[in-house]
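User: Just a sanity check before I run the rest of the batch. Below are the structure tokens for the first item. I only need the designed sequence back.
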């Protein structure tokens, strides 16, 4: 009876507390069988254990996992980990492995051993004959986890490798040939883009995608889902208008320009327009007329860069370059940039050398990248909060794995203040008070500027702290690892994706018992994040594996979150005259409301982006099927022979080598296919940027986008064949065949990859609607 009540209680808790959670009963029932196999496997030698895994590989080849298979994979993995790492996987890690092998996103709390669970699952898929990519959030974690788990894989007869930016094409090909390959999501995506531009099968580095296991799944699948990865070819520098940048630099807020309350739009006042026009030698009417049509966009972009993007918050200037900061993780977003002229405008604002813009050869969003894999699973510490998005966009369910040891962290109620300055004073006092006890403290800030401001204030009262933010991300793992030492004070931007446990007492555990006795790690949030999930990630740094700890967030009704998403604060909220603290529950409700609004806006942006990119991805997929046919067959030669038999015969006679002939024809046709696709992407960008204006004429923007995009796409294949035929017809033939350079078949001699940061500013349509709404409110 007690067992029945317990099972019913577990189910009720999952229904009430864990929406979207997979029922774990099936997996829990297999745990005794996994444990029962342990004595038998312990008697095997290392070679016999590897042989046993090989036998399972033969049985499993290309079949689905049955319960017996899950039991044996988990038992073999547990024994391999015990021998290789000296760690026997806990039951909760085994549950996590089973969840991953069942293509779920498993939620495991910080410190519960996701890395090992993911490795055992990857080995399981490999034993089933699948090639696995373990997708991480950065290059450091990819290499660290591959090297760390390599002995476990070796005992199971599974090969493992990793890719990183420094790797050559040959090293990448070798890494992808392994059973399991670790790589940062951007690195794997860039290799996909490079492979899409090869003209020989021998140059491909990636095999066909089969299984992806995504670490920090919520960060990759949700936060970065709509971020496009781009491959560009060098054509020129982006010429920012230096004259305009100098003019805009002199403009003053509320005199020459104004911004909206959300910090997403800026516009010139009449006085500002007059100053700008005069400085550029124009009349005000001319600034907005056709004669100066190229200057007005430059002014608008420069104004956005000047007024809405803040150094040390949105970007850093380091080594003479503008580097974006990833808002979700508080670190430099390597190779990431804003689209079009905005990047150049920021570079002009900071007076650094403009980077090459280039011509976009191809791109892919992170969401589309992961959609290539027939089987996807993931792991993270905070999946439930985005369970609906994971289901909607990826058809993935969340499996919540209970902690191995109950979480005893004390999550204190938020403290709310009237103003940011009053809040900051309270945070300083909290740090000073807790530090006097000797407890380690981790402070999570909103951005780099706030981290450094807080560090300066603490230094003035002789409180030493270590600052971890986008300026020193190369050292972050070592710094975070020591954040649990007695007396340590660590100030950091958003903690998502750090990938390193904070052990009480530091990495050597020298003062662990003392820190435990004092109450463990104390986490302080300096403001609510735009997502409750990010709040949870920061809290989760404390209380790992049953350790004591506590967490508290400070907030102000004038924080950016409230001002941007719920500025209409209810009347009657009173703060303490001395401290400015607000104890009225209405303030907390306002904070929660602002956070829900921010989450809703982000979800709607995700949905809207996907509505547009879904068509592009479908077109890209169809074109890649055709491109692959050109790459792997004699299609190009056949088409050119059909189009111009006489010239083709001449070319055939010149080369007198069928393989060379086919390759030359292939290079000509692929050049035109790729060029037309690049042109198509540029066309779709133009359509997307102007399409919202049609909504004012009661036309649906998405329908209009489809109406413009579909006919143009259907022209590509026929047009490529036609252009290739024309190239052959006009080409001067030599003993080497066609001089491709002289024939205009010139690919970019320099290519590079980067991520495009979502344009932080609203579309023209959204701006129009906002103005209409504001007028209605005033009435």
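Assistant: Here's the designed sequence for the first item:
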């Amino acid at each position: 009876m007690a067992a029945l009540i317990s099972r019913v209680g577990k189910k009720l808790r999952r229904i009430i507390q864990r929406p979207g959670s997979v029922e774990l009963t099936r997996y829990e029932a297999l745990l005794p069988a996994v444990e029962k196999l342990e004595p038998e496997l312990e008697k095997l030698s290392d070679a016999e254990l590897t042989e046993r895994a090989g036998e399972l590989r033969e049985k499993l080849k290309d079949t689905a996992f049955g319960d017996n298979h899950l039991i044996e994979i988990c038992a073999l993995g547990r024994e391999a980990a015990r021998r290789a790492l000296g760690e026997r996987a806990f039951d909760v890690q085994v549950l996590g492995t089973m969840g991953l092998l069942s293509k779920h996103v498993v939620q495991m709390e910080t410190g519960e051993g996701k890395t090992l669970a993911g490795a055992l699952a990857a080995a399981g898929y490999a034993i089933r004959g699948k090639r696995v990519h373990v997708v991480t959030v950065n290059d450091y974690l990819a290499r660290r986890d591959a090297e760390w788990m390599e002995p476990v894989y070796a005992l199971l007869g599974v090969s493992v490798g990793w890719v990183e930016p420094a790797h050559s094409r040959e090293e990448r090909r070798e890494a992808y040939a392994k059973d399991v390959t670790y790589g940062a999501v951007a690195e794997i995506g860039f290799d996909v883009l490079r492979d899409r531009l090869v003209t020989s099968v021998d140059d491909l580095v990636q095999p066909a995608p089969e299984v992806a296991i995504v670490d920090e799944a919520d960060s990759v699948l949700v936060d970065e889902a709509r971020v496009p990865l781009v491959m560009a070819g060098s054509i020129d520098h982006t010429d920012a208008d230096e004259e305009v940048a100098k003019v805009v630099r002199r403009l003053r807020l509320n005199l020459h320009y104004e911004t909206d309350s959300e910090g997403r739009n800026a516009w010139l006042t009449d006085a500002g327009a007059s100053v700008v026009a005069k400085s550029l030698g124009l009349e005000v009417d001319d600034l907005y007329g056709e004669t100066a049509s190229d200057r007005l966009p430059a002014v608008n972009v420069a104004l956005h860069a000047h007024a809405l993007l803040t150094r040390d918050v949105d970007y850093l200037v380091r080594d003479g370059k503008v580097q974006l900061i990833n808002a979700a993780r508080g670190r430099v977003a390597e190779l990431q940039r804003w689209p079009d002229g905005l990047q150049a405008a920021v570079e002009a604002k900071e007076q650094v050398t403009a980077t090459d813009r280039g011509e976009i050869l191809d791109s892919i969003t992170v969401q589309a990248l992961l959609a290539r894999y027939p089987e996807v699973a993931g792991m993270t510490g905070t999946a439930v909060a985005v369970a609906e998005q994971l289901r909607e966009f990826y058809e993935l369910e969340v499996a919540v794995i209970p902690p191995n040891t109950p979480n005893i962290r004390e999550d204190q109620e938020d403290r709310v203040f009237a103003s940011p300055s009053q809040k900051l004073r309270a945070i300083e006092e909290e740090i000073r008070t807790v530090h006097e006890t000797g407890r380690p403290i981790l402070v999570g800030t909103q951005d780099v500027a706030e981290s450094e401001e807080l560090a300066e204030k603490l230094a003035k009262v002789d409180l030493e702290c270590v600052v971890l933010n986008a300026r020193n991300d190369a050292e972050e793992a070592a710094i975070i690892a020591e954040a649990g030492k007695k007396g340590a004070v660590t100030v950091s931007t958003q903690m998502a994706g750090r990938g390193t446990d904070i052990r009480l007492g530091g990495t050597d555990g020298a003062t662990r018992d003392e820190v435990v006795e004092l109450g463990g790690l104390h986490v302080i949030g300096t403001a609510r994040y735009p997502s409750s999930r990010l709040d949870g990630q920061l809290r989760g740094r404390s209380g790992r594996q049953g350790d004591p700890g506590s967490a508290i967030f400070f907030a102000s009704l004038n924080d950016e979150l409230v001002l941007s998403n719920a500025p209409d604060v209810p009347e009657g909220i009173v703060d303490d005259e001395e401290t400015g603290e607000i104890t009225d529950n209405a303030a907390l409700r306002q904070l929660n409301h602002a956070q829900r609004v921010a989450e809703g806006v982000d979800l709607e942006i995700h949905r809207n982006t996907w509505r547009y990119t879904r068509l592009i991805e479908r077109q890209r997929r169809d074109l890649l099927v055709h491109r692959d046919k050109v790459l792997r067959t004699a299609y190009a030669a056949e088409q050119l022979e059909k189009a111009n038999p006489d010239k083709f015969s001449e070319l055939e006679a010149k080369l007198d080598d069928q393989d060379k002939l086919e390759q030359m024809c292939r290079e000509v046709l692929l050049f035109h296919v790729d060029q037309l696709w690049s042109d198509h992407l540029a066309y779709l960008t133009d359509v997307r940027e102007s399409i919202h204006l049609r909504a004012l004429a009661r036309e649906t923007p998405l329908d209009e986008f489809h109406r413009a995009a579909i006919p143009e796409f259907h022209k590509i294949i026929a047009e490529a064949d036609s252009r290739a035929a024309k190239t052959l017809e006009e080409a001067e033939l030599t003993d080497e065949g066609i001089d491709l350079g002289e024939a205009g078949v010139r690919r970019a001699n320099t290519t590079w990859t980067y991520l495009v940061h979502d344009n932080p500013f609203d579309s023209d349509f959204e701006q129009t609607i906002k103005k209409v709404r504001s007028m209605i409110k005033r009435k």
